[in-house]
Write a structure and sequence with these properties.
Tet_transcr_reg_TetR (chains A, B); Tetracycline Repressor, domain 2; transcription (chains A, B); transcription cis-regulatory region binding (chains A, B); Arc Repressor Mutant, subunit A; DNA-binding; DNA-binding (chains A, B); homodimer; mainly alpha
DNA sequence: ACCTGAACACCGTTCAAGT
DNA sequence: ACCTGAACACCGTTCAAGT
């Protein structure tokens, strides 16, 4: 029951709704990727004329933004408890879990501008942790922006497979890549190393 | 038919060349972005029938890959001189300079799989630096993969404007974003902080 | 060997018209 | 107010035919 959006006058199924359009689009994206989403296919899934969508969504870009906001609103980071390093680790883990739930959408969103908005719980949660860590107020935004960009790169590379592909390369080209049996463990190790790197960067940047 | 000269710079002459197709495509991408590139527009620029392109390039995906390889081959990292921290900083700076030369192409490539290939000078250069830094041979690939993903995220966010937008947010919402006069200095500061973070992560990961 | 025209199966979106 | 059909201006790609 996360979203407290509007819920005003929710008709029954028959009527076309902005929310209904977004959730149907999300289902298509989860199944086949953002590239396979089209206004016409979405209309077909909803059993409606393609042009009917334009009475609820101005265009395809707005549609994608709406779907993104639908799941961005689900992110409720827990930023309390423990020292700030633990808070940041938990924060990163929560966000990564969200990315794993909808990898197609997240990979697309991370690669495009305007994914993070200043009002998002993501940004307010992150800047809060940085402030409690002791980052000077004048530098919280810059530090948060850099950390966001770095971590987005990790999630993006993890989501599109680049990370897994490169991480198993053997130093000597004679041997092939390692077996995929330890892929999950390796992925978690990569994640831990990535977050430790970000934490080390913050620590090195704190005023002494 | 006179020309037997095969200097592959098929400009507007007559003969269509794979290289000529790639460079023309790169020009279009630099001007208007990857999204504005189409086989038909590219053919129009080359003064040729759209279908003629398919005799030299199998499809659009291969076209984009060819353009990417065209500029990936230009990256010749200088990995010698100084301690490994200096080598890594120089390496990152060189790669960032390449990204600034063709931002539209790089932003698109960073977001898609297969941008980094194991034979690329990028990967061999990076793994070489990590090895000299003392990263155990069994972990060079994983560490290099994570660092690549993190740094890609930085370049991506820098290229699509997300980084600059978030970095200037003020802690108190009352004040607007800072003036853009110091944008370049801020960008360089962000870059320095990003690379320092990566270095700190490596240092923390080195065997004691 | 290289190039081309016509055609197919798609797109997003506008607009005037229906109810 | 909401929905629709027809139409416009595009796509990538196949195929048979030209030279």
């Amino acid at each position: 029951m996360a979203t407290s959006g509007q819920a005003s006058g929710g008709r029954r199924d028959a009527r076309l709704t902005e929310q209904g359009i977004y959730t149907a689009a999300l289902r298509l994206i989860d199944a086949d990727g953002v590239g396979a989403l089209s206004m016409r296919k979405l209309a077909a899934v909803l059993g409606v004329n393609p042009m009917s969508l334009y009475h609820h969504v101005p265009n395809k870009a707005a549609l994608l933004r709406g779907v993104k906001n639908l799941i961005a609103a689900q992110f409720r980071p827990r930023v309390d408890g423990g020292i700030w390093q633990e808070q940041l680790y938990r924060f990163a883990r929560d966000f990564r879990a969200l990315a794993h739930q909808h990898p197609n959408l997240i990979v697309h969103s991370l690669a495009s501008p305007d994914f993070i908005e200043p009002e998002d719980p993501f940004w307010t949660g992150l800047t809060g942790i940085l402030t409690r860590a002791g980052v000077p107020a004048t530098e919280v935004a810059a530090v948060g922006a850099v950390l966001t960009s770095l971590f987005s790169g990790f999630l993006l590379a993890e989501g599109n497979g680049t990370l897994g592909r490169l991480a198993v390369l053997q130093p000597t080209p004679t041997a092939g890549p390692a077996t995929a049996s330890s892929a999950d463990a390796g992925g978690d190790r990569n994640f831990t190393f990535a977050v430790q790197t970000l934490i080390a960067g913050i620590e090195a940047h704190l005023p002494r």
